[in-house]
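Our preliminary data section would be incomplete without showing what the modeling component actually yields. Below, a chain of 164 amino acids is followed by its predicted structure, encoded as tokens that our downstream tools consume directly.
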Amino acid sequence: MRPPARKANPHRVAGARAQPSAAFSLPLRVYYQDTDSGGVVFHGNYLHFFERARTEWLRALGFDVRTLAAQDGLLFIVREVRVNYMRPAFVDDLLTATVELEHLGRAQFTLGQRVLRDEELLVQGSINLACVTTDGLKPVRVPPRVHAVLQAALGHEVTQEEEA
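Predicted structure:
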């Protein structure tokens, strides 16, 4: 007798493996502070991993977030987050957090982000960021020099190797 056929899980990426990508990547080590008492990464900490990767991605593109705030008077704030958790990470795992620009608008952009252990996809998310002023947090267009670099990133993502 054969076991019953499994229904496809709509939240699972086929094979639970990441596909090769030109996305920016940042290696991360899981520390005890990232985990619960059982050594499993707390679900909210993946957002921290995403944030670190986004900040380094912007730096690799030539934009420091403190400089953008101080000199340009702008911030990129999270407007929307969607996250799918596929597999857990554990204390001392070496992970990779990736960033890939998916959509660029006048005053906002959307990033696809992933956390992987080797080639295994653990978490994937879609993060929409809005450009706002530091004074009052009012929506504003992404400055032309930043927009031009982001537009170029739509065709080719920056890797750490290219950054060095």
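Confidence is low (pLDDT under 50) at residues 1-21, 157-164. The beta strands are 24-29, 74-85, 94-104, 108-117, 120-133. Preliminary results of this kind motivate Aim 1 of the renewal.
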